Amino acid sequence: MFEKWFAVSGTELIAILCSATLVAGSTILDENLRRANVTRNDLYGKLREANAFKFDQIKAVIFESTGDVSVIHGSEDKILDPETFANVIGAEFLYAASQRTAH
């Protein structure tokens, strides 16, 4: 699971569940799939559910802190807004993929 640890007071720590990038552009992040306990078959099912049939149209797939999977896709070459992906583990992969497809 994806979590960040924060000091509350003294020696107390709390874990906050975080969202994480599973796919950035057409790149599947296998380590993040493993950590989220999501198989490639699970991922492909989520892509079909979202009507994302071509990898070149996928902008991002995010494993949300709630356990949901968000699929962002479309044929237009838009750059992803960093604010939308604040605190998403692996967001740096999204910005790199977004920049490559915008040129």
Q: List low-pLDDT spans.
A: none
Number of domains: 1
Spell out the CATH superfamily: bsu07140 like domains
SS elements, strand count: 7
Strand content: 25-35%
Q: Describe the sheet with the most strands.
A: 5 strands, mixed
Globular, elongated, flat, extended or rod-shaped: what is the shape? globular
Radius of gyration using CA atoms only:
15 Å
Task: Tell me, rounded to a whole number, the average pLDDT.
Answer: 83
The helix/strand series, from N terminus to C terminus, equals EEEEHHEEEH
Q: What is the CATH T-level topology?
A: CRO Repressor
Can you lay out the helices and strands and say which pair or pack?
Layout: E1 3-9, E2 12-17, E3 19-24, E4 27-28, H1 30-36, H2 40-49, E5 58-63, E6 69-73, E7 88-89, H3 91-102
Parallel strand pairs: 3-7
Antiparallel strand pairs: 1-2, 3-4, 3-5, 5-6
Verbal overview:
- The protein is 28% helix and 33% strand.
- With 103 residues, the chain is α+β, with helices and mostly antiparallel strands.
- It has one domain: CRO Repressor, CATH 3.30.240.20.
- Strand 5 and strand 6 form a beta hairpin.
- The protein is globular, with a radius of gyration of 15 Å.
Key attributes of the depicted protein:
alpha+beta; 28% helix; globular; 103 residues; 5-stranded mixed sheet; 7 strands; CRO Repressor; two-stranded antiparallel sheet
Short description:
The chain is an alpha+beta fold. It is built from three helices and seven strands; from the N terminus they run E-E-E-E-H-H-E-E-E-H.
